[in-house]
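idk why but the lab printer keeps eating my pages so im just putting this in chat instead. protein + magnesium ion:
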Amino acid sequence: MDKKVEDETLEASLAPAIKTYLQNGPKFLIDGELVTAKAGGMIDVRNPATAQVVTKVPEARSEDIDAAVKSARKAFDEGPWSRMTAAERGKLVYKLGEIIERHAEEFAQLESLDNGKPISEARAADIPVSYNTFYYMAGWATKIAGSTPSPSVPIDVHSYTLREPVGVVGQIIPWNFPLMMAAWKLAPALTAGCTVVLKAAEDTPLSALRLAELIVEEADFPPGVINIVTGYGEGAGAPLAEHPLVDKVAFTGSTEVGKLIVKAATGNLKRVTLELGGKAPTIVFPDADLDRAIPGVTLGSFFAQGQVCVAATRIYAHKSVFDKLMDGVSEAAANIKVGPGLDPTSQMGPLVSADQLQRVSGYVDAGREEGANVLVGGEGLQDSDGYFLKPTILTNANSDMRVVREEIFGPVVVAQAFGDAELDQLAAEANNTEYGLAASVWTQNASVAHKMAKRIKAGTIWLNCHHVFDPSLPFGGYKQSGWGRENGPDALENYLETKAVTMAL
Ligand code: NAI
Ligand code: MG
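predcted complex ->
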């Protein structure tokens, strides 16, 4: 089929509800109402598979952020939300999961259209992880509890602690897992009893704003508890991070912007949690089961077009298995079917934007210039205006090269062999990065696996697997990969204060 006709056919196959949503124009959710931007600015939303504009969304500026924050402030300070029982709050959080599950196929289509990811991946990963995050967190609402310490003071006292929501939370999310990032942010904050202003990424606002619409239609949150907007980083993200009425900011994105968020938070010393960049090593020992390691490393490297902070971007394999592993991984990579995300047979989609394609392609060029070999990939798709880059593996690399040191955030990975070495030495190589988000280790020796798990400085260690995510598993970074943990009970901690109460008896 002609490429253009094929692209049009794919967009024509979108669910009627999605077509209506795109035609009517997505809106913000502020103070319980669906609204447009005060200044009237709009952002073009492109399908990265075609580079064509599919709709426009409103662009929040500081006045919109201010309205959203004031609404969240009022809802926190005065609203029924703070007086609700934990069970009622948990039920509402659970309901957000049900809304996403009920509209799962529509959300999968939106994610694919907006981010470019294969729809099969959105159906299997993004959407279930999103609704399961709400289901998981909802159960915690009734389990948030203080303690009764035993102070050794010289008078008779009764002491206890209270866990209280931190207040109004500003949340800023990236474009790689748009709905899942919204879920990871909203679920624990609401469960803890906070009120929220969420800013979706300017590149992928569609699923969060669709959730906003469904919240109005299908859930009964008091106005102001959840506000959802989108806008650019400087125009909308920065005013949210700086806002004096915001008690806490939670950010996922680049380490560079993470540092700006910290600075912006100093005005009122708001609490900050950050989930930032990564440069995950995947280490293959000589005894690894290659039948599992080959598909596992391939998935680790190229899932979600490699636009994942925990992508397996530094492959280290023992020299005795290096060639066999890399033959397998490069064959698997070359066989990945790259195409429009909405095509159900595509296994990899385009990168999210022209900017991202340019940035990632720049790394391939830098690798070549610094002397790396392109084993497979390194080029786009013929006859497409989309932002495609084939799965790319670089070899002949060393740890001084930019491609080994910096986060690439695309389907470009670097493979290096290691010789016989002590585990400490290997761990030092794995840890030779400013990041510390994730790592994977492939070996059949359980002792080696767990010893490496202890030695690697990263928030997530996968043994004989990669990219296993679950709402119960704390997720976050050591070093410059961030502050705090998402998911698991740890995520709630980000949104709670502890108060010690003491009475002299
Ligand atoms: P970014 O960090 O600029 O954007 C992430 C979010 O932060 C977006 O919602 C954006 O609007 C917002 N933002 C940007 N500047 C801001 C500011 N000054 N104040 C407040 N909010 C701000 O990431 P970008 O530009 O989309 O991608 C650049 C690189 O960042 C990628 O190539 C990748 O290396 C890294 N990145 C890492 C992510 C991760 O999950 N670790 C996610 C996205 C990007
Ligand atoms: Mg940026």
